[in-house]
Design a protein that fits this description.
With 163 residues, the chain is mainly alpha-helical. It contains seven helices and three strands; from the N terminus they run H-H-E-H-H-E-E-H-H-H. The protein has a three-stranded antiparallel β-sheet with strand order 1-3-2.
């Protein structure tokens, strides 16, 4: 199997487990990852969480809202800065954080127990390099898209009839 085919297989497997997790655990894979990260840090600001996940903060808004509605995460004002909020797990969230049966990370743990440490380290390096390449490839596209939209607005404004 080619490298790209393996990546697609991993993606498909993670998506399948994520759907099953929603039914069996009560959260999706991405929601579970957010719970694990909040649980590991104890208390974290949404912006910090977005940085850890390498996503824009607005991408987390829906996930955090669903976790909060489910009673798994709570937002509290940051005592050091009233403009910020801090995320923490509720007692239900902590119970879910402690459970790992039937989750993506349980599959990862099983695989890592079987794999030689050198293979795991090499895989981590390759995936990290690949993630960096993907990030580099998306940056110019966003910039170009913004420039195109700005240019389109200027052109439209110039063509607008004058009163």
């Amino acid at each position: 199997m080619s490298f790209l085919q393996l990546l697609w297989a991993v993606t498909h497997g993670m998506e399948s487990i994520s759907k099953r997790m929603r039914r069996t655990v009560g959260v999706t894979g991405p929601q579970r990852l957010v719970i694990r990260l909040i649980g590991r840090g104890g208390r974290v600001a949404p912006g910090e969480l977005a940085e850890i996940l390498h996503v824009h903060p607005s991408s987390l808004t829906g996930v955090l809202r669903r976790l909060e509605r489910a009673g798994l995460v709570r937002r509290t004002p940051d005592p050091g800065d009233g403009r910020r909020v801090i995320l923490a797990l509720t007692s239900r969230g902590q119970m879910l954080n402690d459970q790992d049966r039937g989750t993506v990370e349980s599959a990862v743990k099983r695989m890592l127990r079987r794999a030689p440490a050198a293979h795991a380290a090499a895989t981590r390096e390759v995936l990290s390099a690949f993630a960096s390449e993907l990030a580099a490839d998306t940056r110019p596209a966003v910039t170009t898209k913004r420039r195109t939209r700005s240019r389109a607005r200027r052109v439209t404004a110039r063509r607008a009839p004058r009163a």
